[in-house]
Backbone:
């Protein structure tokens, strides 16, 4: 499940150290509430896609996308400044942009 809102009572997200990072890099992510683009550093570990504010702030994971519940990925027209794609999970649709 993707972490959607911050709570004073939620536990910090700690990616498992024993699972190797298979992909990493920076993507633009469309926010859920305000629909603004934010640059985030991502790492795929196992079946989760963890994200951080920057590559240098890996001590504080902001959230993750549970790829086990992903049922569809498609190209998106949500952006004009890069390659946009949508990751559909049972919880929400995540919209990302790669500038590559």
Residues:
């Amino acid at each position: 499940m993707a972490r959607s809102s911050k709570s004073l009572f939620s536990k910090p997200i700690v990616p498992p150290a024993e699972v190797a990072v298979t992909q990493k890099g920076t993507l633009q992510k469309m926010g859920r509430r305000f629909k603004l683009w934010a640059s985030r550093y991502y790492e795929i570990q196992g079946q989760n896609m963890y994200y951080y504010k920057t590559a240098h702030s890996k001590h504080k994971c902001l959230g993750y996308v549970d790829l086990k519940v992903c049922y569809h990925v498609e190209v998106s027209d949500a952006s004009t400044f890069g390659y946009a794609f949508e990751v559909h999970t049972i919880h929400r649709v995540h919209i990302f942009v790669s500038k590559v």
Summary: The CA atoms of residues 42 and 51 lie 4 Å apart. Confidence is low (pLDDT under 50) at residues 1-5. The chain has no helices and seven strands.
